User: Fold this.
Amino acid sequence: MSFPYLSAILFLPVVGLIVIALLPKPQQRTIKLIALISTLASFALSIAVFCLFDRSAGFIGQIQFQEQLSWIPAINAFYHLGIDGLSLPLVILMTFLGVLAVLVSWNVQLRPKEYFIWLLLLETSILGVFCSLDMVLFFLFWELELIPMYFLISVWGGGRKEYSAIKYVIYTLVGSAMMLAGILSIYFTTGSLNMMELAGLDAARPFIPLAAMFFLMLVGFAIKLPVFPLHTWLPDAHTDAPTAASVILAGSLLKMGGYGMIRLCVSIFPAVALQYAPLLTALAAVSVLYGAAVTLRQKDLKRLIAYSSVSHMGYVLLGIFALTQVSLTGAVLQMFSHGIITGLLFAMVGLVYDKAHERNLDNLGGLARQMPVIVAVFSIAGLASLGLPGTSGFAAEFITFVGSYSSTVVEGIRVYTLLGVFGIVLTAGYILWMLQRVFYGPPLDKFNKVPDANNVEKVCIFSFVAAIMLVGIYPAILTDVIKLGVEPIMRLLGS
Amino acid sequence: MMISELRFLAPELSLLGFALLVILVDLLVKQKRVLAGLSIAGLVVSAGFTVAMWGTPATDIFYRMLAVDNFAIFFKLLLLAAAGLIILASQDYVSRFKRFQGEYYALVLISALGMMLLVAAADLIAIYVALELSGISLYVLATFLKDRKSTEAGLKYLLLGAVASAVLLYGMALIFGFTGRTCLVCIAEYFQGMPGAGLLNNPALLMGMVLLAAGFGFKIACFPFQMWVPDVYEGAPTPITAYLSVASKAAGFAVVLRVFFVALGSPEWLSLNWGVLFAALSAITMTVGNVVAILQNNIKRMLGYSSIAQAGYLMVGLATVGMAVGGSAVGQSGLLFFIMSYAVTNLGAFIAVIAISNKINSDEISDYAGMGKRAPFIALALTFCLISLIGLPPTAGLIAKIYIFSGAVQHGLLWLVIVAVINSCISAFYYLRVVKVMWTGTPASKVKEVPSSWALRVALALCCLFVLLLGVVPGGFIGIAEAAARILGS
Assistant:
């Protein structure tokens, strides 16, 4: 058996957290270094997997780096890992954000031991979602993520942290409740839990109507993505979470929803997806516009970025249910791109708040003079978010819109696409307005002594910028991979 | 031969011997810890005899009074383990009893004995006798603190228990009057060849079945027979509360499963009816338990309502058994695995509560503030067990729920599963409230902590270990549950 790359990527953070847990009274620095090393190792391995991943045409729709062990024979569940073009970008995204989340947390003083234990567990659980090919294993990791997130928000958060944490948990649990019912009905229709075998499920005698299964699964993912009107947990959770948790939440956790939709909704029930695509793309347009409109009205910097996520994840939904090769590729790329851009935006908000102790737009202003580096990077992130050419945001959104506009299988898609494109105009509005109100204008005396980013922070935010630029200038680095995962779904859709 | 059949009773007889020994030794020794050691020894010996019988072909002994099968052995081991953990955890608690420590241990052993007979009983009369044996010792144990609440708890338990027994007995009498038999297998044989089949044609049978369900419903605390739970759980000594919530409930489910599956399990017109009955009761039970638990401020009451909710999930398994006529045994094995995981989880939670209440002398949830700082390991263990009760990974609770629900979905109870999973979401709210208070609240005082005894810590560690094992590598345990379920009624 070859080296179990995926298990190693998945469980390196767990190794790190066990070491941290076992150290008696460790120094803060030691804890942070161990966390950094374990996430870096995981990241390095995922890069190795990225390089070893076979992109040749023969591997279209093939799972690579498979590992399969019997786990619960009674329900035919396996410890089954593997990646294809859909999951690989998201795995890299998570391991990348894992490293940066540790760097972002470098200044955490409150109970650092527990904090990093939860952070590392969070990384493992999200990676598990992207790597699992068995639905019960997938579900286990999906639920596992709740526990560290609950603790991170309710202990290290701010504001109404306990309310937000429980709201987050209850919303997700309701979704996963539906999902469990869906998974079980799929299982009893087919007797299989293997996601790959289930693709294009064609049951003569389904357990319950296929559309019912489709929607049971979809609700769980739509809450996570989030899709209007199931999004209300998100602004609260984001606003009250500590910076690193926000980075991971926006950067990687929301993508579990998009990934699940492609893997478990579209690819298992292509016919149902086709049938309901007009409804879902309409919802996508509503998400984009509603999210952007609400964002315009926000006074709290962090809440503003949070609402912008609702809007941007609308593009993902649009791309997925436009059901063309190009639009799906764009959706996956948008997930990756939104991950790094919004991750960076939250990191920047965290920095500004750390230094200026202020998040209300009305009380901020003229910070450009005190923090030139932060201003520059914040502006890059903002411009990437509104889709400036040369950044990953442009590549992803452009591909998504081209793909969905040219879709021939979904009725009314052109209207929804145009509405979605209008969302970009609103994005430009709130991003530029925000930058102006925070950084420009006359310098305020109370911010005179505010420092700029230190070295650790610079390493962290420059890495984000590098990733945004890399994908923006050469998107094929990812689209080559994504193509391999999208292609088989197109075949299922019959085009 | 009667005498040679006595060897099948070795676990029970040895336990009885040790219980009497505990009472005798109590008269002689001053150091009461010896008694705890002796009780543990008795449980280990009894468990040894029980394990040795695993896998022997199923038989009936004493003219079909008792069954010897893997199903009974599974529950006997579970009960012995629960009693052992309770005795370990009682070490920090018995100091509150000024007298009668010896009797406490002896009564725990005797109630375990009663429950062991109960899970093996294959005849209505034997069931009734065993039920009373375990019940009476539990009534006494509930009053052991001798303060106002404890006395009230014991009395309430006794009175309601007596009513339930009467109801049960009436149900048994009706069944006997209808069939002319008391042994479960004979009753089943009668129904097979029954003329004029159909439940509605036979109101006496219907009445008997409903009364049986009601009588047992008291034991497993399902709606609408759950009213005694919060008061008794709150007033009784905490180890006994744990014992009631785990052992007594497990034994109750064992006997319900045996009676309904073996005696009333076929033909279809019979089993479908009680399947639907249990499905409806299950939905109401879990909803009532979960919704009322939200309002509780006392952790023992909260765990009481939570155990009602858990009984509701367990009844999903019962309903599945009823719906799966002549089909797979997935309902039974799901139920057994759920009981296993519920037992270790709930015991762990209660043991942690014992440890904490020893430190702070309070069962109010608000007094748990800052427990994460004052006693991190116990708080962590309690958190872990509560997470398992919600049904989140990586714990036994999640796998148990997936397994029991998968059986229910397979047999057409998708609606019930949706009710159950939504209930799990509701339950997250009150379980996490305790977690929140422990980890985010500020400690009420910086008083020097009372250290927990090593016995309690061992018990707690064992529970958490099993919660984790059942959650991460459940394959082997599910195998055991399947082996125990298959033998039933075959």
User: Anything to note?
Assistant: Residues 276-495 of chain A form one domain. The longest strand of chain A covers residues 64-72. The mean pLDDT of chain A is 88.
